[in-house]
Amino acid sequence: MAYHGIDADPDPTTVRRLVFVPFLPDGACAAVPDGAGLCLPGGEVRPGQHWLLDAALRIPLLVAGYKPQRVHPFAADGDLVYAWLDGDRYTGPRPHNPVPLITGDAAGIAERLSLAGRPDQALAVRDGHRSFASQDEASYYADNRRLLEPAYLRGTTPQAASGFGGDAALWRARRRMLVDGIDRDGTFLDVGCANGLLAESVRTWAAERGLRIEPYGVDLAPGLVELARSRLPRWADRFWVGNAIDWRPADGRRFTFVHLLLDLVPAYRAADLLRHALAALVEPGGRLLTSAYQGLGGSQPAAAEQVRRLGFPVVGSSAAVDGTASTAWLDA
Q: What InterPro entries has UniProt attached to this entry (predicted)?
């Protein structure tokens, strides 16, 4: 079958090869260097592997040192599927190739691929960028859930089931910075809580500073909320299913501290997310904590810079010891 656009996931039994069009948090398109100058990352789907849950995560890491947050197929040619990726450069314990990415606007990357003798990949960049740029909000949330929920549920450690690629010690080193913004006893809501590990950890880390925190969580994925409830049965009634952009507790309660990531919503809704959290979730006099997991060498700015760019005043900020993550806070 000739190259053609697709608007739904392909039958996984038919996918043998993958080619990716990666995008970075600043919107730049990325390719990798090769003998002809550059090419798109791609590879084979191994026997017994799922193209989305296995190959679409493994290939970008090993070929491009890139960690996808979302994967969206947009074209196919026989057993070859083209998908765009939304994510960033990766530095961590998983096997990966820290190749220097070649980045630029999509038109420029497509032109360079044409000059390198890869018109098929140039076409894929143009089509991939069109699909990426035109994605609506409902599709954004669907992409997040369809990849992250099953991938996290496969995790064999609490860290992996929270989307983290390291052990307990590395988790502490790269996430504990957010308790620097917790300055009193109170309640803590983690928006996008996955299996509840961060809310649980914040309670422990705050206690080390003599503070008593009661954890809560909300997540878009019902399977992850059920996992949080089963992991933490004494708090099972404190975890809910909901979308960060508009969720409110049914009983109208609000929280002393609310934590979230801006990539829970499309970039153009980030300011709306902060406004909603401040208006509906943070109690009067409480604090909103916003984190960014930018990675070493990643292109995503620190949390404080992102929040300021959205027009919100930052009261304070903190960063992980290795610079891979940061948290900024603002008061309600």
A: SAM-dependent_MTases_sf (IPR029063)
